[in-house]
């Protein structure tokens, strides 16, 4: 196995150093604190500065954590709060529906799964946390698109990837479906990513009512839908109830 990369270790040490105390240090203070040559410390600081992980004060020349790194930290805390507020409700939804439950947030034109509760049976299942789903072919993604949690414009410029013959690939199809999502208050994707599979999702709102994520159930189409391929109303209701409960815990007052 390859060993640790020294330059990354040193960069991490500099970031930790800047995160402590006053958070503003000169080049000499950084070099002395970490036992680095000034040239080495300066090269790492310049690299961190080029990606906005570090900023340099023009007046004093001292370094501090940059806006990009602080934004990453805030995003991490936001996702962690969303997960922590959702865990009990997601467990309850899995128990009541008998299906797997996933929590999704937008990430760079995809849906990032940040929490996954297995279907409560003895079948073999794989953990989806950290996986990415397409926005246009998943119920979670449709919710995020319909309520403005992630930009719709890039998907309106061209046809999207087709996973099955049911995938909504054209901008017109997708736009029409998203209007239906907003009107109904929930989304479904029936055999749009995989034949025989379906999922149902509803929006999670934070303070101010903005949609910050989506929660949904997924499983075999013959369990989630009736003989005409329509999601069972009882499962839609359970999913929406869970979404409302999580939204209340996040401080949403209306939805």
Automatic annotation (TrEMBL):
Pfam families on file: HTH_IclR, IclR_C
PANTHER family linked to this entry: HELIX-TURN-HELIX TRANSCRIPTIONAL REGULATOR, ICLR FAMILY (PTHR30136), HTH-TYPE TRANSCRIPTIONAL REPRESSOR ALLR (PTHR30136:SF24)
InterPro entries assigned: GAF-like_dom_sf, HTH_MetabolicPath_Reg, Tscrpt_reg_IclR_C, Tscrpt_reg_IclR_N, WH-like_DNA-bd_sf, WH_DNA-bd_sf
Stored PROSITE patterns: HTH_ICLR, ICLR_ED
Keywords in alphabetical order: Activator, DNA-binding, Glycerol metabolism, Transcription, Transcription regulation
SUPFAM superfamilies: GAF domain-like, Winged helix' DNA-binding domain
BP-aspect Gene Ontology terms: glycerol metabolic process; negative regulation of DNA-templated transcription
Origin: domain of life: Bacteria
Name by which UniProt lists this protein: Glycerol operon regulatory protein
Function: May be an activator protein for the gylABX operon.
GO molecular function: DNA binding; DNA-binding transcription factor activity
Span of domain HTH iclR-type: 5-67
Ranges of residues in domain IclR-ED: 68-252
